[in-house]
């Protein structure tokens, strides 16, 4: 590889030969994980009827259309998400959102490592071992080794592995669904009273959106940049959207049914372990093995996107240094969650509370920029490569900050209690959805309708759209 390819922020054309179906399997395997079962049980906790709960899984999961549309920017340019983010935020203005996204990636990676560790513990317990801290430490070590081995995978190998685990885990999920249907307390499920559409339903949808479409949006173009630019945009967007939404709807639906057979599912310190009580032993063993195998390449997505984010903010570290840094993170954070906090669900919800708003504000600005400016005018090399041409795009940065501050005022966190976090905004993720709407609206008015968009459409460096 010559020097120009080493330093280029764009993927060479010869490496852009992906097909839309590749993205379907990649995102499908990334979202069919066992954590979705817990999401289903948490939805029930919003005190909704069965119909409303099912509707939450569908509407919330379809937030993946955000990832689908944003991924088109990668297909059209061959650049990763946070290189493209330089357009609405500026070269230097993009640093803070990039660092926050890096923290988000490492946070989600840690959550997934915790899930993989707890699943490994559940497997050992099902095989007859006694659950204790020593077993948890051994399981953490085993899973971390599996994750770090996955670093050796190429993009093509990852696609193949994700495809295999999509079929395996998906088939097993359907088998478990068939087992759970006769065990489900349908009388209890169908007689649950309807909750308020504003006070219960909307916060539940916001919770699912914060943990799915909004969270994954920061990696939207990281894999679509491998797509052939001549591929149909509609096919690419549909493959990403359905690849993320379909498995989420199915796995969270199973979680809804499972919540009646396993009432403690959402509140358990190890939610994966209580699942085995509702399944035949042999099915539980196979399910856990497949879940562990599926979580490993899923964690690799977080590792790869973290490395790409470092490149986006011009931190070009050696691969060995990056792996050591990532290894330390996925040892320290999961160890804290598993051995000190011992509150898996609480940690997950606190994490979504802070990072969710920051990422929601960023993704909204990126989404509006692409949909109303970039889709028409395209990205230019000068805009993305010349740090002096567009150092700080104040319209994007201001929109991002306003959305985040408004969301913070309507939320209660461990560091700040917002004065407006009352009523329907009390104790839920509805503020994340509010943040998304506010940031996008502000950017639309001051960035799109202002008529002062020369910095956005400058193309003297050559258009990247094919």
From TrEMBL:
Signal peptide: none annotated. The chain crosses the membrane at residues 21-44, 50-74, 95-128, 134-152, 164-181, 201-219, 240-262, 282-301, 322-342, 354-373, 394-416, 428-446. It holds the Pfam family Transp_cyt_pur. InterPro entries: Pur-cyt_permease, Pur-cyt_permease_Fcy2/21/22. Belongs to the purine-cytosine permease (2.A.39) family. GO terms for cellular component: plasma membrane. This is Permease for cytosine/purines, uracil, thiamine, allantoin. Keywords: Membrane, Transmembrane, Transmembrane helix, Transport. It comes from Clostridium ragsdalei P11.
């Amino acid at each position: 590889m010559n020097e120009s390819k080493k330093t280029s922020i764009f993927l060479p054309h010869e490496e852009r030969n992906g097909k839309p179906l590749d993205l379907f399997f990649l995102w499908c395997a990334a979202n069919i994980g066992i954590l979705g079962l817990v999401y289903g049980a948490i939805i029930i906790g919003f005190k909704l009827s069965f119909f409303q709960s099912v509707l939450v899984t569908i509407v919330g999961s379809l937030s993946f259309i955000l990832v689908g549309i944003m991924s088109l920017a990668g297909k059209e340019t061959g650049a990763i998400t946070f290189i493209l983010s330089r357009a609405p935020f500026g070269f230097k203005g993009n640093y803070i959102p990039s660092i926050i996204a890096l923290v988000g990636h490492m946070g989600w990676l840690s959550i997934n490592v915790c899930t993989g560790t707890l699943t490994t513990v559940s497997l050992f317990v099902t095989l007859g071992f006694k659950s204790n801290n020593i077993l948890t430490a051994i399981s953490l070590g085993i899973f971390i080794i599996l994750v770090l081995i996955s670093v050796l995978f190429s993009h093509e190998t990852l696609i193949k592995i994700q495809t295999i685990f999509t079929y395996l885990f998906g088939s097993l999920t359907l088998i478990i669904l068939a087992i759970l249907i006769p065990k489900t307390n349908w009388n209890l499920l169908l007689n649950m009273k309807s909750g308020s559409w504003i006070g219960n339903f909307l916060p539940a949808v916001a919770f699912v959106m914060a943990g799915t479409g909004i969270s994954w949006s920061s990696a939207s173009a990281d894999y679509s940049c491998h797509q052939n630019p001549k591929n149909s945009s509609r096919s690419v967007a549909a493959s990403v959207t359905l690849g993320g939404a379909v498995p989420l709807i199915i796995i969270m639906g199973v979680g809804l049914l499972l919540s009646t057979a396993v009432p403690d599912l959402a509140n358990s310190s190890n939610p994966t372990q209580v699942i085995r009580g509702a399944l035949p032993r042999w099915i539980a063993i196979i399910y856990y093995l497949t879940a562990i195998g599926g979580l490993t390449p899923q964690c690799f997505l977080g590792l790869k996107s973290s490395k790409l984010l470092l490149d986006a903010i011009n931190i070009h570290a050696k691969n060995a240094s990056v792996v050591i840094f990532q290894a330390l993170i996925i040892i320290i954070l999961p160890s804290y969650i598993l051995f000190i906090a011992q509150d898996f669900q609480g940690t997950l919800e606190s994490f979504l509370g802070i990072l969710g708003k920051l990422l929601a504000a960023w993704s909204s600005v990126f989404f509006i920029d692409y949909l109303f400016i970039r889709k028409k005018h395209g990205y230019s090399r000068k805009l993305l490569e010349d740090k002096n041409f567009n150092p700080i795009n104040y319209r994007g940065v201001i929109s991002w900050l306003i959305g985040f501050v408004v969301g913070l005022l309507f939320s209660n966190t461990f560091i700040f209690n917002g004065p407006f976090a009352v009523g329907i905004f009390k104790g839920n993720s509805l503020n994340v959805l509010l943040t998304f709407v506010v940031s996008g609206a502000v950017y639309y008015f001051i960035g799109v309708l202002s008529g002062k968009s020369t910095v956005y459409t400058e193309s003297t460096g050559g258009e990247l759209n094919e």
